[in-house]
Amino acid sequence: xxVVHHITELRQALEAGPRPAFVPTMGNLHEGHLALVxxxxxxxxxxxxxxxxxxxxxxxxxxxxxYPRTLPRDSELLAGAxxxxxxxxxxxxxxxxxxxYKVAPPAALGDILEGHFRPGFFTGVCTVVMKxxxxxxxxxxxxxxxxxxxxRVIEGMVRDFALPITIAGGETVRAEDGLALSSRNGxxxxxxxxxxxxxxxxxxxxxDAVRADPGRTEAAEQAAMHALRARGWAPDYIxxxxxxxxxxxxxxxxxxxxxxxxxxGNTRLIDNLEF
Length: 275
Ligand code: PAF
Fold this sequence. Notes:
The protein is α/β, with parallel strands linked by helices.
């Protein structure tokens, strides 16, 4: 496996072969990322993973500075999962001049849920992913369903710009007790880590309640928010939505997903459950 830091090196390494399978990441990798790399490997394309902590998707008060940078460990893990090339640019390589051109998703998808609580987040994500797509020129790109709204936003971007890239969503990988793996789980103290499973417990409760009686969707969302608050969490949202447009859906039997974001101490966790 090669670790390359420059766009020119990456282009040289890829020029002779087929369009690669691509797993974009911000590093501090866990089993969720590695499952995507293994899925990429199964496509029989060369596999490229990127590691870049993208300043554009962090608000000034967020954790850009303390986001863990763990390239040596990440490289070992990626090699073990079958990755062929790691693209790990520094900020000067990705943004040699301030990134003046941006890609903004439509407000109907980009300004709801995560986008409502993190204004500009999806513009930062789309801009770096579009740039990475131009650099890597993948035929296939894989994103985890843990970041469910991100996956839908990227699918829309690829469709609207007619990019010749297949987007695949990987299932969320969970710890044995149900916590969705995330690079931010490492911020949790021991007590918070034990408490963190309450999020998926509430998502399961909402899914069960709505399955039993779709007319009680809003009550189920409110009850879950209340239950988390009572345990010391600060939830941003718990919302049942249609799986494709992420809009509130009324029709019983339509494929749904319940999405949540909530702060536990200083750590903001997100999760979701399709049902
Ligand atoms: O999901 C992430 O880790 C990031 O949002 C991504 C897609 C790598 C863009 O920086």
